[in-house]
Amino acid sequence: MKSGRQKRRRCRAARTSRKRSTSSEIDKLKVELTRLQREGKLDKAAELQYGRLPQLEAQLKAAEKSTQGGQENRLLRTQVGVEEIAEVVSRATGIPVAKMMQGEREKLLQMEQRLHQRVVGQDEAVRLVADAIRRSRAGLADPNRPYGSFLFLGPTGVGKTELCKALAGFLFDSEEHLVRIDMSEFMEKHSVSRLIGAPPGYVGYEEGGHLTEAVRRKPYSVILLDEIEKAHPDVFNVLLQVLDDGRMTDGHGRTVDFKNTVIVMTSNLRDDLEPRFADDPANVRR
Questions:
Q1: Residues 142 and 62 in one domain
Q2: In angstroms, rounded to a whole number, what is the distance separating the alpha carbons of residues 94 and 126?
Q3: Fewer beta carbons under 10 A from the terminal one: N or C of the chain?
C-alpha cells in the first residue's frame, strides 16, 4: 500500500515536472519567435510558429487535460491561487482569511441573519448594531474611531455576551478575536493603570496593559468591557481617548490603534437609570 502511494506520488511529480518543462520551453520559443520576426528571419520564424510551437502546445494541452478534474490536480498544484495569497497575507497582517475572500457588501447585507443564528430574539439590538457597523464600513462614520461603540444594558442571560461573541465570529471569523475584560478588577484607583500598563519603574511595567497589549496583538477584535459600572471613574478618562481618537498610548509609550475594533460595554444596571431613559429606550441607543 505504501509503495503504491509512493509510486503514484512519483508519477504525479514527474507529470508536473514535464508540464513545467514544456511550458518553459514554449515561453522560450515565443521569445525566440519575436526576435526572429524583428530581425526579418521569416523562414526560421515560420518553422517555429507553424512547427515546433504547435507541437509543444498540443503536448501541454494534452497533459493538462489528462489531469483536469482529477485527484492529482487537487493534490499537487503548480499555480498560486487566490486562496494561497489570502492565507499568506492573513498570516502576515492578522486579517482573517474570510474577511478578505468574501465581498464586504454581500457579507454586511447578511449581518442580521448571521447574528440571529446565535442570538435568539433581541431583534432591535441586533438591528441597531448591524446598522452602526454598516455605516462605519460604508465610510459614513468617522474613520479615526472604532467600527462601533455600544452599551448593552440588561439582566443576566438576555444575550449581551453572546452577541459580542457572535460579532467577533461574524466580523473576524473567530471568537478568539473577542477580548473580554472583567471591569470588576478595576474598582480601585491604583488598578486603572493596569489597563494601559504600569509606567517605568513600577511593578508590572514589563507585562504591558491588559487592554493595550491585547489589542496590539489582535488589532482586529471585539472588546468586551464586562460590568462597566463596577469600574473606577478614572477608567472612563482612559477610554475617552479610545472612543474619540481610536488610539491609546500604553505604558511603554507605544500608540495602539483601535480603529479596527468594536467596543462593547455591558452592565446589569437597568432600574437605576433615570425614568426618562427607562421609559424611552431610544434615549440610550447611542
A1: no
A2: 26
A3: N
